[in-house]
């Protein structure tokens, strides 16, 4: 991953927003949008070790969508995990220490912190959650949550 020898590449959110906007201009297909967002977000930041979507496929049920990184579990009920908590509450889950989160689902034993955000369509319906895992402890900030939430709203608010 790009970055000087002793420093992490941290997301330039203005550049990320511009790239995602340009790449997704005029597109409304959710899978195409998810694949593009997962790719661009994942490649933008050395902190991000797994980046992807879990889609709402039935009431109370999430199923994996486009992602970058090692394999992720395929199905997550709303009652389980950080993703389920996000889907159940509709609230951002900013987890500095996954071992301290009751019911965390460890798709990789290396994960130390996690950020999960709700994804809504233009009518405000929850269509997915966006999950970012890091092998670094306490890797995510409120600014990350705010910037990525705004980008998700701009992309998926037009999705069909
Ligand atoms: N950690 C998530 C599960 C998804 S894997 O991290 C890709 C959770 O607890 O819901």
Main attributes?
6 strands; 160 residues; 4 helices; globular; binds methionine sulfoxide; Beta-Lactamase; six-stranded antiparallel beta sheet; alpha+beta
What can you tell me about this protein's structure?
This protein has 160 residues and is α+β, with helices and mostly antiparallel strands. The chain has a single domain, classed as Beta-Lactamase, CATH 3.30.450. Helices cover 31% and strands 25% of the residues. It contains 4 helices and 6 strands, in the order H-H-E-E-E-H-E-E-E-H. It has a 6-stranded antiparallel beta sheet with strand order 3-2-1-6-5-4, with helices on both faces. Helix 1 runs parallel beside helix 4. The longest helix has 15 residues. It is globular, with a radius of gyration of 15 Å. The N terminus is likely disordered. Bound molecules: methionine sulfoxide.
Briefly, what is this?
This protein is α+β, with helices and mostly antiparallel strands and 160 residues long.
Biggest β-sheet, characterized? 6 strands, antiparallel
Through-space gap between termini: 33 Å
CATH architectural name: 2-Layer Sandwich
CATH superfamily descriptor: GAF domain
Return the string of H and E elements: HHEEEHEEEH
Helices and strands in order, then pairings?
Blueprint (H helix, E strand, L loop, with lengths): L12 H12 L5 H14 L6 E9 L2 E8 L6 E3 L3 H9 L3 E3 L17 E8 L5 E9 L7 H15 L4
Antiparallel strand pairs: 1-2, 1-6, 2-3, 4-5, 5-6
Helix pairs in contact: 1-2, 1-4
This protein binds methionine sulfoxide.
